[in-house]
Design brief:
about 400 residues; alpha/beta; eight-stranded parallel barrel; two-stranded parallel ribbon; 14 helices; 12 strands; about 15% strand; binds 3-methyl-2-oxobutanoic acid; binds zinc ion; leucine biosynthesis; metal-binding; amino-acid biosynthesis
Amino acid sequence: MTRKIAIFDTTLRDGEQSPGASMNTEEKLIIARQLVRMNVDVIEAGFPISSPGDFKSVHEIGKIAGDTCTVCGLTRAVDKDIEVAAEALKSAKRPRIHTGLGVSPSHLRDKLHLTEDEAIERAIHAVKYARNFVDDVEFYAEDAGRSDQEFLVHIIQAAVKAGATVVNIPDTTGYNMPWNFGTRIKELRERVDGIEDVTISVHTHNDLGMATALALDAVQNGATQIECTINGLGERAGNTSLEEVVMAIKMHGEALDAHTDVVTRELTRASRLVSSITGINVQPNKAIVGANAFAHSSGIHQDGVLKARDTYEIIDPADVGAAGSEIILSARSGHAALRHRLGELGYTFDDAAFEDVYNRFLEIADQKKEVFDEDLESMVQERQREVKA
Ligand code: KIV
Ligand code: ZN
């Protein structure tokens, strides 16, 4: 059996930080129900102290998450934040407090005005304080991706000793490359006493388009929880995309020695739901859930897919709940695709007639981005009238 990788969804917290994505409690509950249906392991439902609305959302989601899905509330390493999160999480069967602070030189110096020793003290206090309220406490080392590795080892060691059950190593600014992020995780595993008894989580951002690659690199080096969002929604260029990491693990599980328990056929539904609720469109060429993820446009590809789907598709669309492979008829389409579509519409032609039909099709296609069934119907009917006359 491969290692179970827990999927920690933060669409409702970090995803909501995407400009224009804010959601009310009702909307968050709709998404939370879908996340439960998908069997994610953790829902980060909000940042309870940030507003009464966020408090309510965390509380309401706690009521519907059931006893297999953990509900998590974010806090700063501040007592009041932790108390409010604990209160909001009282409704959850599996509550988790997610607390922490910035650990990179710029966060310590410019944002928090703390020395390294003071930051360690604050981390220890926050974890211990949170453990007074819940048994499951996740410590985040914000901007770990740009931290001094020696200091990161010390602060993670302190958090583990203080009682953290999960340690989160975020690449908050999406700065890392796959070849140097995983090594940080590996070193933590080698140097932090007791880390084998806690979950190592990664939380990567997409500023250089590396979020998915970094998360997988971390998994390869021992992380067993990935923090991610539907459609990769999130601050700036977004967070790790849930659908991408889940499908990458599904396809390469053996090599990664990893699996998730996410119900992948719910991915497309989840993507559409988040997009319609937030009003943020998914780019058409987005991996897994984009409108073009299973669309084939060039003649060579269409010919291949019509002969055998896996010539140009690595994922069965049904596995992610998508409608199916799509052949887009355009001026780039060849004979095979046109013959196939006309056949589906009930039209067959001998070779000579088909050549004429194909030439008529190209004339239309050169004037349009895409040729639709209505265009084909009127083209065939016009030809039939001409042939009869
Ligand atoms: O990106 C980040 O570091 C975060 C933390 C608050 C976990 O979102
Ligand atoms: Zn983040």
